[in-house]
Amino acid sequence: MATSIRPRTLLSSTVFAKWIVALLVPVLVFTFGWNGDLIVNRVLSGFLLPGSSAYDTLTLIQAAFFVTVFYLTTVALAGYLVASDSGRRGMVEVWVNILIFVLVPLGLVIYTNNLIFGLALCAIIWAVYLYGRRLLLRIFHYTPPPPLEELKVIDAEQQVILRSRAIAGSFWFAVVLAVIWLIADLFFYTTGTLSFQLLIWGIIRTILLPVAGYFLGQLAALIALRRVITPAGNGGNERKEARGRVSRRRQLEVLSTARASEEAKDLVPNDLPLRSTGAQRFYLLLLIAFVLFYPALDPLLFGSGTAGRLAGYGDAGFYVILALGLNIVVGFAGLLDLGYVAFFAIGSYAWGILGSPQIGVLAGFHVNPQIWPWFFWPMILGAALIAAFWGVVLGTPTLRLRGDYLAIVTLGFGEIVPIVFLELDKYTNGTNGLVSVYSPAFPGVDWSANTPIPYYYLILALIVLTLFANLRLRDSRLGRAWVAIREDEIAAASSGINLVNTKLFAFGAGAFFSGIAGMYHAAKLGTVSPDNFSFGDSVIYLAMVVIGGIGSIPGVIVGALVVYSINLFVLNQLDTIVADPSNGLYYVLNPIYTSISHFVPGFTFGSIRNPVFGIVLVVIMVFRPEGLIPSARRKRELHRAADEAAEVGSLDVAPGAPGFESEVRID
Amino acid sequence: MGLLLQLLFVGLSNGAIYALIALGYTMVYGIIELINFAHGDIFMIGSLVAISTLTLLGITDASAPTGWTLVSVILLSFLSAMLACAMLGVVIERVAYRPLRNAPRLAPLISAIGVSLILQDLGKLWKGVSPVPFPMGLHQIFLTTAFTVETVQISIANILVIVVAVVLMISLQWLVTRTRTGRAMRAVAQDREAAALMGVNVNTIISTTFFIGASLAGAAGFIYALQFGGTIFTIGYQLGLIAFTAAVFGGIGNLVGAMLGGLSIGLIESLATYIPDSDRTTHFLFNIPLGIPHGGEAWTRAIIFGILILTLVFRPSGLLGQQTPEKV
Predict the structure, then answer these.
(1) I want to staple A517 with a disulfide (CB 3.0 to 4.6 A). Which of A185, A318, A543, B171 is the partner?
(2) Which of B305, B314, B322 to mutate to test the interface with A (most CBs of A within 10 A)?
(3) pLDDT (0 to 100) of residue A233
């Protein structure tokens, strides 16, 4: 079929303008405002003029990968968004959305030169913006455009149009980007900051990008068409094997109307660029590339101090694993657990005893420091299983309890376990704790405290495994049994679910992941002592799950990162800024700091960590008890009416609304 | 024998303090079915307020007032602690619990934990990290022995603690059973909507409950500071959980149960220190040392939590609570 790359009508021109500008501005900000082109130039000069670069080859290759992925993904995304535009939302609205949700975080990270701090400030701005927008919309009695009421079927001719729009979108975006970049390169060349080889590369790139845009547009069209409903066949898939299966349209018609209209919103065309599932795949790709190549990018993007930052992210990582584990117990199965730190302690001590000279002391043999660290890898499973066993044991007394009583019993266990570890000091060395716990061993990799990079990748791998396990668990029969127990125990038991087994499985599974996290923590820190485990930590883990959104996997990940940054990072950052006049925020923070110091001697921002945390907890509970990213199931329960205003910023779910959540009451 | 009596007495006076705090827990749970995690920290604030009032009144370590000055100083400090805590309790209820009245169970629990964190650090910021001492001169007055039973010395502080606790408990019991407000509180605890239909202002009654419960915690804070000569900002968390165990042990929602539970837990805690240290014991049974490592003293918290767990598993209604059936 003939594909044209010229825009067809004037209407299409506005569409192109809308999306191309919307995407171009962030890309240009990244390229020129945040050292994007610096990365590219450093990489290229590293390759073309070897020996001139300060970075080693591995870093350069990783950085090269990332920029390639970044720019190609953006070009493809342009095509996707142009193809999926339905014209119901105006240019200004899209631009404002992109400004607030993409440019503001980007700008803040650049300004503060610190990823977590910039994102934390950005979250505050978002909260204020969403609240203000809701108020404004209510004042002006804004009615959103009506939702798609019927499922549109896209026939062959419309598919062609879609494809051509995608290709055109990608192509023109790539052209504009290449031209702007070339102009910038010429400018830099004339001012002497760009070498001749890089200018040659710039010219090559100006030719390559539009060609890439053409092909990426086809790819984007393919991705867009995967989600549409076609007259025959299954989701645009016209292969022979589709004939035997039920068509997507039929599937959606069979579902409830609410579900169908919700699914319909996900299908192309969809012009909420930040919420459509198709566009989210692109964002996910960018995020994965960023996280994967982060150790290489960090020195290029943020300057010095990479090691400290990476170590911090490693710590944030095991918080994520803990949150995911607790999410199984509290979120999926609805068993309120206030003593989760007990399982974390068990996991830590498992490796602390078995993976340090202590095992030699206890069992009476000499521990070889070269061989023993290799046991880390099988012990990951071992410690997790030990923790899971104790999870089952500690969960057994709670089987008949509900709600608050369950919470208190788990709280009791959370207190008893650290006391046991403290007092049985023949095995655990009591208050002094276990020292010289071994790090893992991997050929050719230095695991000492100097380089946090291996720990960073280790925690990434562990997070990926945990995430995968959680997703499979959630969508499995067991996961559905957990949700059934959470909603109504007696009905679940009447439906044939074995309450005892399912609950014990929940405790065991939750403890399994905390065992993994505990082991990582013990290995990274090198010591294990009972002071690390207290009720306050249990509260932090519960807050991670609650703030993020109970039962929702992306929610608890975000919750874990938010809580980590509040608890361990943001306030210490504020202290650093107050002492550092070169930072722009100094002039805002220093007067506040000095005025408070008059009243409270010895005040530092770090010391008010706990009350800030407490205030955040109370505020979130009062204003948004379903968490930052509520689970899809809860969203479905709450937004039964196809009210599009609710989807844009669902801050407006009041507690006490009918069907909010089924309570488990103690009678 | 003397040792046993001593332990009994210490347990009783500790138990009186636990009972006062447990009353606050049980009242709040009975009326809005919420475990008020912040209650222990209200107790802590009460003890800090008591000591601050004494300092404000000009009592230093050296001063040793007598006669009416002594009585008035003590009374002022006591009343200010009670009042401050009562107001704090009402404010907390208004800000952190009332908006969540209809939310699922988890929300007010998390909110309570948040308030507890805030209060703890408020105490830390106000008075610092190190223990805050009760004025020495005054403390010495109360430590003088009143009389001796066998070899056990009973000081004025001990008597005061028990007397104050008993008086407060009796007056609370009178309030709840013989006054209109008390009847309204019992009605709201029994069935909130029916009470509202009967013309009870539910919000006011809940605020009153918090007022009374928190004032009892303030009183407990005062007598704790008096008896032990000082406080520290972490005392709320430590004692709060023990007092909560007492409330559950005695039957949550039941006032007499809370009092009994407090006294029992105090007794159990002091008797637990009697358990010998297995590392140092001289008694053996089949070659296994009698006792537990580091002695009972190190394990008291674990033992108390063990009691909590056993109570909740085997008799969740506590000693005096009613066995309520599980409704579908």
Answers:
(1) A318
(2) B305
(3) 47
